[in-house]
Write a structure and sequence with these properties.
By secondary structure, the protein is of the alpha/beta class. 30% of the residues lie in helices and 12% in strands. It has helices at residues 2-32, 67-79, 96-104, 170-174, 196-201, 217-220, 240-245, 248-262, 275-281, 308-313, 333-337, and strands spanning 42-43, 55-61, 84-91, 112-117, 156-160, 164-166, 184-186, 235-239, 287-288, 316-318. InterPro entries: Glyco_trans_8 (IPR002495), Glycosyltrans_8_dom-fam (IPR050748), Nucleotide-diphossugar_trans (IPR029044).
């Protein structure tokens, strides 16, 4: 009997050891399992934020070919505020090192930032090639769809396109009060009556009719009136928790896939393929931003101009359209160029007409 008890004790100890080993193995696998956000890697200065409520987080994309544009945007933001701004700079793998070099070797070296690498493979099967304006199909144009999946640590963020200049305190835009149930705030295209004549003169649309193909049943079934006011998603404030709750990213991907199948919109219609899914998903479900925080269409014509007084009062300027202020021809170049930060590597340079002298 004594021998049997010893054998039982040994077996019990072995059993306990096996259970412990199994638990340890399971825990180890769980702790090393790649997260969804691992599709985006982070680089650069990322100091801990002691008081997230006191920080204004800004997301901006930086492509290698337009890096000087995003740096001008960053410079304009930081130069016009006393707020603590944290920049999430989203780029592709080939631009990670050049982006960091641009910042660290220029007047921007003191900014607080994190470089986030975007994986374009998430767009596979969702974006159809379109030759009318291939620049609008750049993977970074769709980063705004995937905000909750980026490696960010703030619950509210501002998203800015790289062809934007901020002329006022960015904190004022960040502090906008979102209505209950709204995941984002945009500026409506119908909120600037003083600019309607200029907008019409360059053929820009201000309603859904200019973005969606109402000949398609999938569009008509949405029940959206073609004359409803559109908005431009190049500048917006987002509530990340509400975005997740409403599964906004999944909704946007659904309409990308629908367009891939039956072409319900295209880049030939009023400005690109990134806007229509946002218009569909956020129809009647967004808070409106003060229109002076998004004075746009500056890049739609090399000739049509706003009054100088009006532009001085604007809090944010957006050169959406093909005529960018770092290129030539374009309008209101002086308002953009004052924030330009020369590329320390010399790769990015301004296109300007040669002097007659």
């Amino acid at each position: 009997m004594a021998l049997l008890r010893k054998i039982n004790r040994v077996l019990l100890v072995l059993l306990v050891l096996m259970v412990c080993l199994l638990l340890h193995s399971t825990f180890l696998r769980a702790s090393t399992r790649p997260k969804l956000s691992d599709r985006w890697k982070s680089f650069g200065k990322a100091p801990q934020v002691p008081d997230a409520d006191a920080v204004v987080p800004v997301i901006i994309c930086s492509s290698e070919e337009r890096m000087g544009a995003s740096m001008a945007t960053i410079n304009s933001v930081k130069s016009n505020t006393d707020a603590s701004v944290f920049f999430y700079i989203v780029t592709l793998r080939d631009a990670v090192k050049p982006t960091k070099f641009y910042i660290e070797k220029s007047k921007l070296k003191g900014i607080r930032y994190k470089i986030v690498e975007f994986n374009p493979m998430v767009l596979k099967g969702k974006v159809k090639p379109d030759s009318s304006r291939p620049d609008l199909l750049h993977p970074l144009n769709f980063v705004r769809y995937y905000l909750p999946l980026l490696d960010i640590s703030h619950k509210r963020v501002i998203y800015l396109d790289d062809d934007v200049i901020v002329q006022a305190n960015i904190r004022d835009l960040f502090n906008i009060k979102l209505k209950p149930g709204h995941a984002a705030a945009f500026a409506s295209d119908c909120d600037l009556p003083s600019t309607h004549e200029m907008v019409r003169s360059i053929g820009m649309q201000t309603t859904y009719m200019g973005f969606l193909d109402y000949r398609k049943k999938a569009v008509r079934d949405l029940g959206i009136h073609p004359r409803d006011c559109s908005f431009n998603p190049g500048v917006f404030v987002a509530d990340i928790d509400e975005w997740k709750k409403q599964k906004i990213t999944k909704q946007l991907e659904k309409w990308m896939e629908e367009n891939f199948r039956q072409n319900i919109y295209s880049s030939a219609m009023a400005g690109g393929v990134a806007t229509p899914p946002m218009l569909i998903v956020f129809h009647d479900k967004f808070t409106t931003v003060d229109p002076m925080w998004h004075v746009r269409h500056l890049g739609w014509s090399p000739d049509a101009r706003y009054s100088e007084n009006y532009l001085q009062e604007a809090r944010l300027l957006h050169w959406n359209g093909p005529f960018k202020p770092w290129s030539y021809p374009a309008v209101h170049l002086d308002l953009w160029e004052k924030w330009y930060v020369p590329d320390p590597s010399g790769k990015f340079s301004l296109e300007r007409p040669e002097s007659d002298s």
